[in-house]
């Protein structure tokens, strides 16, 4: 269905009714069957114009397959886009459609609901023992490489920055001017790779994970599906929920999980880590990096 996950029954019903429709309604139905993604981001007039029919013809077509009108018919297609079943450009057009319909309050509610649900679903599917085992592997390693590209690059760098307050040899990759595979050139079984990617999966991340596996590295992977190519290669795999009305995957649950993983690393670490964190922050105070009110 051209990339949507709209229920097959809707389009199948439309196809079954095709011969029963008037010639004009058949034109509208044919257009929908061939371009289902357009429905979720188009008004009745836009669909009618694209199908070269009148708007009331599109409405009659929707009623023919059991819907009260076009908006009722369009709802499942819009839901598919909201759930991320369509490509980024389709979801961007859908957001613009919301603005035009002045339903920004509904968009706000959807985003808040998805943020909360993403965090709940992510942690509901993860066992504390799995986090503990991954944390122990990280603490016992020689080097930890955190890999994210695109929006996940800043997440990887933030995780590395936080970890560096108490631990050494954490590296966010790719480094400026480098590539992930080059950054892992000398890594081996003594090292850990934390890799992050969500649909559509970034090829350089998948390739880096494959190479890390060949080199014997311990792999901790965060992705949005058990079928993700990086989870299938990981020693420690974590599925994150990233649904959002936005046109790109939500980062909230990824950040929350990494913060939790880092907390577990601190918890399983030796006592020296407390001294490191204290020394790090004392040095910052001494250098005047923290604002302090004059008394």
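Q: What amino acid sequence fits the structure above?
A:
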């Amino acid at each position: 269905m051209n990339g949507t996950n709209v229920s097959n029954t809707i389009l199948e019903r439309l196809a079954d009714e095709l011969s029963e429709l008037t010639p004009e309604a058949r034109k509208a139905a044919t257009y929908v069957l061939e371009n289902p993604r357009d429905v979720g981001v188009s008004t009745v007039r836009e669909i009618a114009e694209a199908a070269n029919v009148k708007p009331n013809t599109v409405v009659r077509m929707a009623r023919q397959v059991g819907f009260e009108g076009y908006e009722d018919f369009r709802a499942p297609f819009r839901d598919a886009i909201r759930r991320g079943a369509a490509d980024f450009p389709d979801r961007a057009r859908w957001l613009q459609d919301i603005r035009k319909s002045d339903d920004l309050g509904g968009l706000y509610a959807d985003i808040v609901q998805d943020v909360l649900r993403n965090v709940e679903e992510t942690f509901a599917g993860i066992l504390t023992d799995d986090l503990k085992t991954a944390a122990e592997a990280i603490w016992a390693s020689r080097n930890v490489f955190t890999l994210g590209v695109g929006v996940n690059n800043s997440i990887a760098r933030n995780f590395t920055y936080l970890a560096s307050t108490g631990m050494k040899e954490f590296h966010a990759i790719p480094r400026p001017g480098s590539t992930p595979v080059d950054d892992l050139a000398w890594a081996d079984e003594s090292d850990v790779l934390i890799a992050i990617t969500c649909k559509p999966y970034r090829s350089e991340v998948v390739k880096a994970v494959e190479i890390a596996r060949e080199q014997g590295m311990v792999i901790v992977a965060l992705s949005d599906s058990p079928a993700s190519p990086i989870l299938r290669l990981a020693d420690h795999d974590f599925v994150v929920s990233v649904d959002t009305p936005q046109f790109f995957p939500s980062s909230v649950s990824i950040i929350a999980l990494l913060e939790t993983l880092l907390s577990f690393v601190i918890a399983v670490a030796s006592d020296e880590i407390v001294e490191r964190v204290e020394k790090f922050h004392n040095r910052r105070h001494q250098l005047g990096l923290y604002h302090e009110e004059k008394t």
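Q: And what stands out in the fold?
A: Residues 117-286 form a domain with the Rossmann fold fold (CATH 3.40.50.10490).
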